[in-house]
């Protein structure tokens, strides 16, 4: 059956259509531990209605998912979040938010395929939930920047202390952000683009 010929087919919404001026598209993954704000970031910055796979948390996660510090959380991403943002008339970023719980990490292989870089969201109340995430990125050789998500009442630390706690190289950008704020989210994505460009420039310099 040809659904496009069906009278029920309305076609894509105008805001979902890729701009005609777009000449380059980049895949970016948004990663971090459980409950650090990945779905919120994708939803805040996406220029299209984001695709989410959030499900209500059930008894299946009791004793498996660590809710310390985020006891009010009632939903969780079980596959991915997807959004899109145009950086300028030519460059479009496709955003893929990964599930935070380790039991869903088997989905990472597909989500990371073709990704140019990543944004790691960090919650300073629960930094330990991002240790393994950063380790997996480093193992895969995926360039990343770190966004320190500004949760209300979260402790503040000097960048030097955060780098030491996360065992991060000084070359990895670390930026304060608010996953609820579109401009803040856009800025961290721009920081990732600049970082990726700097790596490309270094790799092409004559030895």
TrEMBL record:
It comes from the Bacteria. Pfam families: ATP_bind_1. The keyword Iron does not apply. Keywords: GTP-binding, Hydrolase, Nucleotide-binding. PANTHER family: ATP/GTP-BINDING PROTEIN-RELATED (PTHR42708), GLIDING MOTILITY PROTEIN MGLA (PTHR42708:SF1). Belongs to the GPN-loop GTPase family. This is ATP/GTP-binding protein.
